Automatic annotation (TrEMBL):
Reaction(s) catalysed by this chain's protein: D-ribulose 5-phosphate = D-xylulose 5-phosphate
Cofactor note (record): Binds 1 divalent metal cation per subunit.
Pathway where this protein functions: Carbohydrate degradation; pentose phosphate pathway; D-xylulose 5-phosphate from D-ribulose 5-phosphate (non-oxidative stage): step 1/1
Family: Belongs to the ribulose-phosphate 3-epimerase family.
Active-site positions on this chain: D40 (proton acceptor), D178 (proton donor)
Organism: Brassicogethes aeneus
NCBIfam families according to UniProt: PRK05581.1-4 (NF004076)
Short name of one Pfam family: Ribul_P_3_epim
Annotated protein name in UniProt: Ribulose-phosphate 3-epimerase
Cofactors that this protein relies on: Zn(2+); a divalent metal cation; Fe(2+); Co(2+)
Amino acid sequence: MAQWPLKCKIGPSILNSDLSMLYEESQKLLDNGADYLHLDVMDGNFVPNLTFGHPVVKCLRNKLRKAFFETHMMVAEPEKWIEGMADANVNLYTFHIEPVMDEVISLCRKVKEAGMQVGLALKPGTGIEAVRQYIEHADIILIMTVEPGFGGQQFMSDMMPKVQWLRHNYPNLDIEVDGGVGLNTINACAEAGANMIVSGTAIIKSVDQKAVIASLRETVESSIHKCNV
């Protein structure tokens, strides 16, 4: 879990970038102030979309040796990809609990044994009670604020009570939000207690990525300051 005091971290999702220029787009995001890269891995099974796997992530790692990589594993069988992503030097392996409810603790252990941090992700339809017993085994909890699978969806503000509950009960926990997060929705996320912000379209499509990232950070840090005081 996070060390006190909490820190704001902005992790752009590269899903809506030009994937034929994955390295250039990723480097640009880092140059513009991104704290980490959020890499959406989809298997066409757990979600209806298909993106990329560990060979692409490893190629990107060879170009960006110091960047912090989070892979968001929107896959039906997260155990299958632990070894490959560890080999690609992924820092944080975030998987959905829904398809593996009986195996969450053993999967957390395997991810950590492979040298990665563990994130547990919840789809919008999954209640917070489903993850309560696993929180102590995770480094972050990811609350999806859209249905996973495609970028550019509308933010679901009714997910904020999940974030609020986590922040109230786990004040030191890294809480991540992902989906439809941008300048118009960051206030809700920050006030609920999220400190790790995944933003795709709002950053990627902006003419001034640096300004958007800075604005997101300022909003979150203002709320974190209130928590830390």
